[in-house]
Specification:
single chain; alpha/beta; Metallo-beta-lactamase, Chain A; seven-stranded mixed beta sheet
């Protein structure tokens, strides 16, 4: 369905789940990419408290042992947000507010770097407060943007444009026209773009202007609606579709 869920399996065996989609179907997907006996995930990242990103995390926290939960610290008293915080407390996971400059060490030279938020975002609109992180392994990188809007994408260019270049970009906000600023794309300069979205979503994601932009830039795009789960493997030098 409409939503985001990104599973990172580092060469060291460390695992990260970034968002959990809209419902418990995330458990079925995790079952396909994790060994059946594996009942722990090192780090869970909730990019922002919208239902299509965090509802599934409630089920994940009930089923898996989770050590750390990163979230932006947005005050949003919705059902899914409250259920998730309750699950975090029940699980006994350590809750961390994601802030620019934090590095999540995944071992063997792989790491996740938090690029945003760079301040307190407790009363910021949820998409604007989205965690933006870059997964780096050797010479390869993945830009993971949550639902971050163009204003934040362009702000990241101004903060430090040298930290953006990535092999794969997860298009912001499911391919909405409110994200994928041409300026930002120029600095990310991805080889591949992924749209994470539901087929019949009511928002019309991905927006045709965004699809045309990637076509014009000759960047191949992959779409979870038509392809289902999309997997990439990095050897630290190149990235290929699995």
């Amino acid at each position: 369905g409409q939503g985001d869920a990104i599973f990172i399996d580092a060469p060291s065996g460390r695992q990260v789940l970034m968002d959990g989609g809209p419902d418990r179907s995330v458990l079925r997907e995790l079952g396909k990419v994790m060994p059946w006996w594996d009942r722990s995930i090192d780090v869970v990242i909730a990019t922002h408290p919208d239902a299509d990103h965090i509802s599934g995390l409630v089920d994940v926290l009930q089923r898996y042992r989770v050590e750390y939960v990163f979230q932006p610290g947005v005050e949003k008293n919705t059902g899914p947000a409250e259920s998730m915080l309750l699950s975090v407390a029940k699980e006994g996971a350590q809750e961390i507010y994601a802030r620019r400059g934090q590095i999540i060490d995944l071992g063997v030279g792989a790491y996740l770097e938090i690029l945003f938020p760079d301040r307190d975002v407790s009363d910021v609109e949820t998409n604007t407060a989205s965690i933006v992180a870059r997964l780096v392994y050797g010479e390869t990188a993945f830009m993971l943007t949550g639902d971050s809007p163009q204003a934040i994408e362009e702000y990241l260019v101004r903060l430090d444009s040298s930290k953006l270049q990535s092999t794969v970009l997860k298009a912001g906000h499911h391919g909405s026209r409110t994200s994928s600023s041409p300026l930002f794309l120029g600095f990310v300069n991805p080889n591949f773009v992924v749209f994470s979205r539901g087929c019949e979503n009511r928002y019309g994601h991905p927006h045709e202007e965004v699809v045309e932009l990637f076509t014009r830039l000759e960047i191949p795009t992959f779409d979870t609606c038509t392809e289902g789960r999309i997997s990439f493997i990095s050897d630290g030098i190149t990235v290929r579709r699995k």
